[in-house]
């Protein structure tokens, strides 16, 4: 960065960052491979739209404007910016100062308890992530161009400097791509892995084409589940764009609150959040909604990327056998096939997804811990955990429901 006159600063809100500038960095980071300067105009001509909708200005600002983060939520926005002297945004990272470890899906509560028993203060900490969203995507966002890799390095270095200067215990970068994980690992961040389940589209023309790749027993099971899920006279609708009315959001929010109250005690997202994303990014939202006897009874919210469908929250006010699988997993596969998307990412955890054609996929996080003693203890733990995650992934992949004769041919 010696040839660049840059400054590092923190923004307390995305309201202080122009949407076009942020999205140009997000779009340039859809892949962290260097982008040729000739491609810059094509990126900017799309409005800076990134493959991953969660790092867009619209999504992140909707969290702030709806008070889903900020205030007393324990998520205080402190977005990291790398700018030229003239104010041009070269890079950024979605950052939050946290007073707890909720809503992250990468669990470090055990580290916090151990550190506090030893007399340390684990909170506040710095979190680089998309709140409440266990979806892999770029975290060190850089405007495309020859300086992009240097800008990512500056963001990584700044995270460590801010953690030390602000007397925070740690900085955590979660659900980042492997390339950023490697970059941070080389700078002293501890490396962690975990497992999710993703469905891969092998160019299927129909859902039946996909079923044809499964073992006979699994094929029959899925057909039975789909039939039973809809047998009580349930109809399924895909809603996106102008279909996302306030009446629909009211119904979905009731489902979300029911599930959120049982899982977390209180829902993370406010009702206003859903209205805002419906207004600012309606074509990137897909609601899969189930209706019976003229009223909505269940639904799942998905976000549409250029290559993937990202399944997020689900809820219901009536509970029917296999309806969850139909709305969240099978309908997502149907949509991905119909729209030629490469994969479906169905959220965190859930080995039950394996039997439904979703295969294990490694996720990554990186952790800078300021205290040397805690860092040594966590590093030792993570070495053993990474080995376990790798072994578990191999075991799960071996239990995939696909036909053995097809696997042996590969």
Describe this structure in words.
It is a single chain. The protein is α+β, with helices and mostly antiparallel strands and 410 residues long. It has 2 domains: 6-195 and 362-396, Aminopeptidase (3-Layer(aba) Sandwich); 202-341, 3-Layer(aba) Sandwich (Aminopeptidase), CATH 3.40.630. Helices cover 39% and strands 23% of the residues. It has 13 helices and 15 strands. The chain has helices at residues 19-28, 40-45, 57-65, 109-117, 148-165, 178-186, 207-211, 216-230, 246-264, 271-280, 323-338, 372-398, 404-409; strands at 6-11, 75-77, 79-84, 89-93, 95-98, 125-128, 141-142, 170-174, 190-200, 235-239, 285-292, 295-304, 308-316, 343-348, 359-369. The strands form 2 sheets. Strands 2-5-6-8-15-9-14-13-12-11-10 form an 11-stranded mixed β-sheet. α3 (57-65) runs antiparallel to α10 and α8 crosses α11 (323-338).
How much helix is in the residues? 25-40%
Largest sheet: 11 strands, mixed
The number of distinct structural domains comes to 2
- Overall, the morphology is globular
How many beta strands in the DSSP annotation? Answer: 15
Structural class by secondary-structure content = alpha+beta
Using the CA coordinates, give the radius of gyration: 22 Å
CATH superfamily of the largest domain, called what?
Gcn5-related N-acetyltransferase (GNAT)
Strand content: 15-25%
């Amino acid at each position: 960065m010696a040839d660049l006159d840059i400054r590092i600063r923190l923004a307390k809100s995305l309201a202080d960052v122009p949407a076009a500038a942020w999205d140009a960095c997000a779009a340039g980071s859809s892949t962290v491979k260097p982008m040729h300067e000739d491609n810059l105009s094509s990126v900017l001509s799309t409005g800076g739209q990134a493959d991953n909708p969660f790092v867009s200005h619209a999504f992140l600002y909707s969290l702030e404007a709806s008070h889903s983060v900020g205030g007393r939520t324990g998520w205080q926005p402190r977005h990291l910016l790398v700018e030229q002297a003239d104010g041009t945004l070269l890079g950024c990272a979605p950052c939050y100062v946290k007073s707890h470890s909720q809503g992250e899906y990468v669990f470090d509560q055990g580290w916090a308890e151990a550190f506090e028993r030893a007399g340390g203060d684990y909170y506040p900490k710095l979190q680089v992530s998309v709140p409440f969203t266990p979806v892999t995507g770029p975290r060190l966002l850089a405007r495309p161009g020859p300086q992009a890799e240097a800008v990512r390095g500056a963001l990584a270095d700044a995270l460590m400097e801010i953690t030390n200067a602000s007397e925070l215990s740690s900085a955590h970068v979660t659900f980042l791509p492997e390339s950023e994980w490697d970059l941070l690992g080389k700078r002293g961040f501890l490396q962690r892995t975990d497992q999710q389940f993703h469905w891969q589209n092998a160019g299927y023309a129909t859902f039946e084409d996909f079923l044809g790749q499964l073992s006979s027993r699994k094929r029959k099971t899925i057909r039975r589940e789909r039939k039973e899920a809809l047998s009580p006279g349930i109809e399924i609708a895909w809603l996106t764009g102008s279909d996302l009315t306030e009446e629909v959001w009211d119904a979905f929010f009731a489902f979300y609150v029911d599930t959120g109250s049982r899982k977390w005690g209180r829902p993370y997202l406010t009702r206003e959040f859903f209205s805002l994303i419906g207004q600012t990014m309606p074509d990137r939202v897909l609601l899969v909604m189930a209706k019976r006897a003229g009223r909505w009874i269940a639904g799942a919210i998905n976000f549409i990327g250029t290559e993937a469908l990202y399944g997020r929250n689900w809820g219901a006010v009536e509970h029917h056998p296999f309806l969850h699988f139909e709305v969240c997993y099978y309908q997502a596969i149907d949509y991905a096939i119909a729209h030629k998307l490469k994969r479906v990412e169905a959220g965190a955890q859930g080995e039950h997804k394996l039997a439904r054609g979703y295969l294990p996929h490694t996720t990554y996080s990186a952790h800078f811990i300021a205290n040397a003693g805690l860092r040594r203890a966590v590093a030792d733990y993570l070495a053993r955990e990474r080995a376990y995650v790798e072994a578990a992934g191999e075991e799960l992949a071996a239990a995939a429901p696909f036909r053995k004769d097809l696997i042996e041919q590969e």
